[in-house]
C-alpha cells in the first residue's frame, strides 16, 4: 500500500478553513466527556498511528501530545466521526492518575461548571494541584 492510499481516509474529513476539526474526548469506560480540543491533519494521522491522542494547540500553533507535560496521556480506543464529517469523537482511556485527570485545572473533566439556579457552579473537585502537574 503506498502513502497516498493510506492517506485517503483523511480526505473524508471536512476540515474547517484553518485546516482543523473539533474533537471531543470521551472516557471509554464511563462515557464521561473529558474535554474538547482541535486536530489538524497531522494530529489525526499521528493519533491513528500511535493510539495516543495528539491534538493541535491553537495557542501554541503546534502539535500537542496529550500528557507530554502532565503525564495524563489519553490512550485511544476508537476514533469516530459524526454524520457531517466535521466533528470527531475519541473514546479514550485517560492514564497518569487515579482517578483520571483530563483537565489542566487538575480535574477529571474540563466540563466541571454546571448551570443551576441562575449561576455557574463548580461540581467537580480538583484531584491534583495543577502547579504540581505542569513544569
Fraction in helix: 10-25%
Low-confidence stretches: none
User: What's the CATH superfamily, by name?
Assistant: Phosphoribosyl-AMP cyclohydrolase
In CATH terms, what is the fold-level topology?
Ubiquitin-like (UB roll)
**What is the CATH architecture annotation?**
Roll
The proportion of strand residues reads: 25-35%
Shape: globular
Total of helices: 2
Number of strands: 8
Task: Please state the average pLDDT score.
Answer: 94
> Briefly, what CATH class?
Alpha Beta
Counting helices, strands and paired strands, the structural category is alpha+beta
Strand arrangement, major sheet = 2-1-6-5
| Biggest sheet character | 4 strands, mixed
The end-to-end span amounts to: 42 Å
When the domains are counted, the total is: 1
Report the order of strands and helices. HEEHEEEEEE
Task: Please state the CA-atom Rg, rounded to the nearest Å.
Answer: 16 Å
Q: Could you characterize the architecture of this molecule?
A:
By secondary structure, the chain is α+β, with helices and mostly antiparallel strands. The protein has a single domain (3-132), classed as Roll (Ubiquitin-like (UB roll)). 14% of the residues lie in helices and 35% in strands. It is built from 2 helices and 8 strands; from the N terminus they run αββαββββββ. The strands form 3 sheets. A 4-stranded mixed β-sheet has the order 2-1-6-5, with helices on one face. A two-stranded antiparallel sheet has the order 3-4. It is globular.
Amino acid at each position: 500500500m503506498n502513502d497516498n492510499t493510506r492517506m485517503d481516509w483523511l480526505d473524508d474529513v471536512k476540515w474547517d478553513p484553518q485546516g482543523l476539526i473539533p474533537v471531543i474526548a470521551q472516557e471509554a469506560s464511563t462515557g464521561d466527556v473529558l474535554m474538547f480540543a482541535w486536530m489538524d491533519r497531522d494530529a489525526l494521522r499521528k493519533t491513528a498511528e500511535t493510539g495516543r491522542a495528539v491534538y493541535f494547540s491553537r495557542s501554541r500553533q503546534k502539535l500537542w501530545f496529550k500528557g507530554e507535560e502532565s503525564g495524563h496521556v489519553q490512550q485511544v480506543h476508537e476514533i469516530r466521526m459524526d454524520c457531517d464529517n466535521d466533528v470527531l469523537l475519541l473514546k479514550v482511556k485517560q492514564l497518569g492518575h487515579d482517578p483520571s485527570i483530563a483537565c489542566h485545572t487538575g480535574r477529571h473533566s474540563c466540563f466541571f461548571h454546571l448551570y443551576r439556579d441562575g449561576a455557574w457552579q463548580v461540581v467537580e473537585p480538583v484531584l491534583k494541584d495543577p502547579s504540581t502537574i505542569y513544569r
